[in-house]
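tmp note - Membrane protein YfhO
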Amino acid sequence: MTASIDFKRDVLPHLIAILIFLLLTAIYFSPILFEGKAIAQHDILQFKGGAKEIQDYREATGEETLWTNSMFSGMPSYLINTRYPGDFSGVIHTILTFNLPAMAGNIFITLLCAYILLVTLRLNTWISIIGAIAIAFTSYNFIILEAGHNTKSLTIAYIPLVLAGMFYALRRNVWIGAAIFALALTLNLHFNHLQMTYYMLLMVLVWIVVELIYAIKEGRIADLIKRGLVLGIAAILAVGVNFGRLYTVAEYSQHSIRGKSELSVANSGDKTSSGLDREYAFSWSYGVGETMTLLIPDFYGGSSSNTRLDKDSQSYQALLGLGLPPVQAEQALEQGLPTYWGPQPMTSGPVYVGAIIIFLFVLGLFIVHKPTRIWLLGATILSIVLAWGKNFEAFNYFMFDYFPGYNKFRAVSSALIIAQITMPLLGILALYKVIRDRNLIKDLDKKLLISGGITAGVCLLVWLFAGSASFVGAVDPQLQQSYFPLDAIRADRESMMRSDALRAFVLIALACGLLYFYLKGKLSATMAMAGIGLLILVDLWSVNKRYLNDGDFEKRVVENHFQPTKADQMILQDKDPHYRVLYLPNPFNDARTSYFHKSVGGYHGAKLRRYQDVIDRHIVQNNLEVLRMLNTRYVITGDPQQPVQRVPGALGNAWFVSEVKTVNTPDEEIEALNGLDASTTAVVDVSKFKTAATSYNAEGSTIELTEYQPNALTYAVNAAQAGLAVFSEVYYADGWQAYLNGQPVDHIRVNYILRAMEVPAGKHTIEFKFEPKSYAIGNTISLISSILLLIVIGGAIFYGMRRKPVEVEKEVIV
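out:
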């Protein structure tokens, strides 16, 4: 029999929590929700440029193209903007977020998932609300939104819900827990930021090791294995729902820069047998000393570009000293200055967990249930060490070279997402333990004061001895060239460090004082919790506002960004359906060009490896012949006097060649593009492909593109004699199928990245269609799994609620 539900006890507190989360979200993101504004999120604007052709095709046909020519001369759309109709999880996410707009919905769902985790751990409603705020309002969650990393944010948001399902299944009702876990992992995978999911798995791996050790010691290993098997089935179901996405991405990754290079010598950096270049992967490594930002946000100066200083700053006085009028000096401050002086190439802001949370985390190391604190401490240490990257080579290079899948990811500083969950979690468990067990924990007041003394003492030492640091940043030579007084910016960096150290000291002292007075009976539990919660909110909210505030929001952000320039308008007068454009000022880190044109460049973290090889070896080396064979008709110069130049001799969509140059290796193939006349000669790697002849008579043969769609190209051919046709399209075997007069035929790769086909004499129709089997298979499995997921969730909840939960132990986690 199911237990009766008391609305006031079992439902109302959670409704209040949801309303509080909605209120906090609405206040912080009021410009979005009530003023129709948006923020110029860099990666979102790049996404909109790269996805324009895909979305236009979807709107026109109701179908998925799966390929786009808008970036890097052509690539699969899997990691740009592809929908999988068999995956229902997007609808579930929309329901859970009340269809709130992006950014606002991201933070709300983070609050909700963190709250569910803490409630699952049996913390009371109010402490769970405080804990949800502590987890959701860590600075990184807001900084990545400002940058436009929305899918990363949502992947992180569902991590606490995954943990909630695991804990519930392993400690209480296995069926309800498994249902929560399956749903949470499904949603985590749905947003396809596998690096964040990978870090979650590392966090879980540490927990599993600890759990196994204690299960063996306590004689409950058999029960743990049974419950673990149920969770394993739930995980398979979650993967099944996302199988379409995971399958196509896994297939594509082998051919992308995340896969193995075919060249014997990598283009740059230390290279493993597969995966990213080591130098590239470790470019963003958190400094060892930079870890102090978890406690003191401006320990290393905050942002590398947009720190807004006030008129009391030394930089303001320096600007006045340079002769700038006060108004212009204030405008310069408003635009922001590069106050960051840490080891990373650049950063939008620090990873700040919160001074009070760090204090509570240290307290948790003394008083929280031993297995729990071992897990959370171990995961935190792992997180920090991974984030150090090249600054802790011995461990991290070993991980990169040997740990499965780790070499697929870059920006290792992101590993701190583990710490931004584990540290608040242990801290909030400590707070709950203090409130609940103040009379049961031996020497609790001493442990409280020791924890406060350690953390506040560190802050005090920083405040006292900040002047001993150098405050020399990587950007300083550029500032010196602009005649900006370096002494002024360095003095401001020191002032920022001291100010935040003192700020952290005060916050810790206040929080420690509140709990101490509670222990001594001078404050009620309600007052102590309210005070701690308010301090945490004020602390995190105020730091987040440094990096994402009302001044960052504008109206018509997207519309203004994609206003066609004079160069765009000139090029768009050409009504040919298919040619390419090179944006010369920043070709390979800009997708705005892709919004209007089919671009040789673009912006993407997983472009095709062979194409990247050609970029590195030829395009950036100004090999005009490569641009000609890619049918690059126009170059946007960035020069107002001559914004567009026509590329001489662009070869068009397809042409017949008269000669085949044979090579034996990929190294020879890419090298052969030097000095190549692509209009007459094709380079073929005979270790992979064969041609009927090494010379052809191309005289009198013509080929013309007659129909263009991103995933289907049709050519009219009039071949005077049998010949080899070369197409200015990127070769990608896992999906592109060639047809000659409606019949499937083989095609080959030439010139390292292009397609070619031997054509018999006569008039023919050639078609290329992108028909990847992985998408069809994956989407079918996703559909079946989605239906199963809904059935399993409903059945598990029904069955689980009818059964009395069998708990592993009375002391669940704290």
